[in-house]
Each structure stands twice: as structure tokens, then as C-alpha cells.
Design a protein that fits this description.
221 residues; alpha+beta; two-stranded antiparallel ribbon; 10 strands; 15% strand
């Protein structure tokens, strides 16, 4: 994967050993202690392994995971991303600050929302692998639209199900976990793909302002 190899030439992140983070929790009786609440943050090699597996399975969310790994998007941002906010020629993706830019899960139900914080509104540049994945998905989506005819839900969303409807964020998470398990990778939630992207960026010399994925904040798009 190009975006991985470009970063790895400056770092030793190709290690097969995943990065682990430990959380401090409060145990019963008011005593503080360290429990084994460790979760893997994948290395660049493991991210590449995951994306290669998704490609081999022709999974409909392959392009979404490419974008998430490249730019560190949250699952709600992936679900709510629209084609009007992507410029494939410029390899640019924008997360606007307006209502409806994300899709979140509340009480098990999906609903439109704004980005998590004002600073979540931002733009970033895709690597060539992610751009190609999006181009392939765009062609596949067009074929699905043609096949569905009048039954197609013309939502304008980038990542859709076979009838054009939006993905539920929880479904995206469960699909990610299933694919990563089948790819024989360490168990990790989809949100850690965002942390993996940030880790790769920081270790290759990017600043906290631009990581993850070199995305920069924008206002009132």
C-alpha cells in the first residue's frame, strides 16, 4: 500500500508487534488498579494486510476502510460522507461542519448529526490507493443503481448498501470486526483504525495539528 510504504521508509513501524495501550480503571471498593484493558493499535503492515483481505473478498466497504485508514475518519463520518464532498481528481475529502454530515447511532437507531466537535470539520488528501479504491467503488455503485432501477435510494452518500441506503454505524463496526477476525489480525474496534492512522502519521514526522491522515481543520463548509 503506497501510503503505508511512504511513511514506513522514515520509521521502523513495520514491526509485527502491535502497539498496546493500557487503561487505568477503578475496581470495586474504590481501589484504583490496572486491569488488562489493552487494545491493539495496528501497525502499518497489519493495516495493509487488512485492506488486502477486504480487496480479496470484494467487500462493499473496502473503499470505506481505505479512506478510514488513510485519513482517520470516524465511522459516523464514513457513513455520512457524500460524493459532493470528494474531489477524486484532487484526491481531496472534506468533512463539513453542517448538520447531516455524519450518521450516528443513538439507542440502536441511526440518525443524522453534525461532526463530533467544531474542529472535526476538516479536509484531507487521499493517497493513490484510496483514490483508486473509491473509483472502483463508484463504478460498482453505479452498476448497483442501474440494477435497482426505481428502487434505488438516491441519497448522494458515498458508501451505500446495494439499494443505495445508508450503512448503520453499528453494522460498519461489526463488519470491520468480522473481516479483521477472518484476516487473522489482533482484535481491535474500528475506532482504533483512526488511532493507527494517527500513530503512523506522528511517527513519520507529522504534527498533532495535521494528524491523523494529514487532515486540516476547516470552518463552516
Amino acid at each position: 500500500m503506497e501510503w503505508i510504504s511512504n511513511r514506513l521508509q522514515y520509521t521502523s513501524i513495520y514491526s509485527k508487534t502491535p502497539i498496546l495501550r493500557r487503561s487505568t480503571v477503578t475496581t470495586g471498593g474504590g481501589l484504583s488498579g490496572h486491569l488488562s484493558a489493552e487494545r491493539s493499535v495496528w501497525t502499518g503492515e497489519q493495516i495493509g494486510q487488512f485492506l488486502d483481505y477486504c480487496e480479496s473478498e470484494n467487500d462493499p466497504l473496502t473503499a470505506a476502510f481505505h479512506v478510514a485508514a488513510c485519513l482517520g475518519l470516524r465511522r459516523g463520518e464514513l457513513c455520512g460522507l457524500r460524493w459532493e464532498h470528494i474531489d477524486l481528481d484532487a484526491a481531496a475529502v472534506t468533512i463539513p461542519s453542517k448538520q447531516g454530515a455524519t450518521i450516528i447511532a443513538v439507542g440502536g437507531k441511526a440518525r443524522l448529526s453534525k461532526p463530533k466537535t467544531r474542529r472535526s470539520a476538516r479536509t484531507g488528501v487521499l493517497d493513490s490507493d484510496a483514490v483508486e479504491a473509491l473509483r472502483r467503488w463508484h463504478c460498482r455503485q453505479a452498476a448497483q443503481k442501474l440494477a435497482m432501477g426505481a428502487g434505488w435510494m438516491d441519497s448522494g452518500l458515498v458508501f451505500t448498501q446495494a439499494d443505495g441506503s445508508a450503512w448503520h454505524p453499528d453494522t460498519v463496526s461489526s463488519r470491520f470486526e468480522t473481516l479483521s477476525r477472518h484476516a487473522k489480525l489482533p482484535k481491535t474496534p474500528i475506532k482504533n483504525l483512526r488511532h493507527s492512522s494517527a500513530t503512523l502519521g506522528l511517527e513519520s514526522g507529522e504534527t498533532l495539528k495535521t494528524a491523523p491522515g494529514g487532515m486540516k481543520s476547516v470552518r463552516d463548509i
